Amino acid sequence: MAQYPINMHVQPVIEPFLDLETNTISYVVTDPDTASCAVIDSVMDIDYAAGRITYEHADEIIAYIKKHDLNLEWLIETHVHADHLSAAPYIQSKLGGKIGIGDQITTVQETFGKVFNEGTEFQRDGSQFDRLFKDGDTYQIGGMTAFAMHTPGHTPACMVHVIGDAAFVGDTLFMPDGGSARADFPGGDAGELYDSIQKVLALPDDMRLFMCHDYGPDGRDIMWETTVAEEKAENIHVGKGKSREAFIQFREARDATLDVPKLILPSLQVNMRAGDVPTTEDGKPMLKVPVNAI
User: Fold this and answer.
1) 98-102 vs 131-133, strand pairing mode
2) At what angle do helices 88-95 and 56-67 cross, to 10 degrees?
3) For a Cys staple, 28 with which of 15, 93, 122, 196, CB 3.0–4.6 Å?
4) What domains appear along the chain, each with residue ranges and CATH number?
């Protein structure tokens, strides 16, 4: 872990925002010394059946940032989500900041550019984003140094972002009783996911881990914070030293039983564009429904 600038003495202020429609937790992460902040994994609201997009969840985040007189520097996407739409460009239009994602977004854009028949006008070079992170890249949130860890497996572009004593794991891990994310989307790989989880579990035991999703297994309340030590000891998919082979066998068998996320088609089209809704030639927002393609 020497290549990562871990600083457990830095303790960012973390405010979660739960979207119950998608079981997504977004975060405002603030440097208490400078009032600079980042937003991680924001949500844009969609009524898919009605084709209607609104911004209630994003407006809550904006109101919080304004209330506390914070300076928004970053809008971080841990990966191209398949279960909710990003509100990053909407928040950016109100508060500024740079939108960042892992540099393997280009792989995702290439794959789904074909699925959605996007044509040559759709750029597959990640240029829709302000920053493409490579493994080990650092960036500043006020006086705090954050860094990105490449954690593929769920998707090729997944990144865990570590800020002081807190790590935002995206879909790489769930709460200990939730296990791990699926690895059967195009570009996903159960073996890579296991390896990525081991990178996370090699962080200090008292590193706080913040989930992007929680589904309240067995009816418990929604939760989003745990630690590396708790995951190593209790995670039902990888805890107690489960082997790579056993994880792959379990993960692939389980994934074969899972339904496709209900918002996967709009989410992928929007999120591979950094949160922008695709438009027709005359500029009208429009989503596609490819048939038998996923």
Assistant:
1) parallel
2) 30
3) 15
4) 13-259 (3.60.15.10)
29: Cβ contacts below 8 Å, ≥ 6 apart? 12, 13, 14, 37, 38, 39, 40, 141, 163, 166, 168
Greatest Cα pair distance, the chain, in angstroms, is 56
Place of tokens 């028949």: 117
DSSP 129-196: SSEEEPTT-EEEETTEEEEEEE--SSSTT-EEEEETTEEE-TTS---TTT------STT--HHHHHHH
Each residue of 66-103: pLDDT tens digit?
999 999 999 999 999 999 999 999 999 999 999 999 99
Quick: pLDDT tens for 252-265.
999 999 999 999 99
Distance in angstroms (rounded) separating the CA atoms of residues 140 and 31 = 10
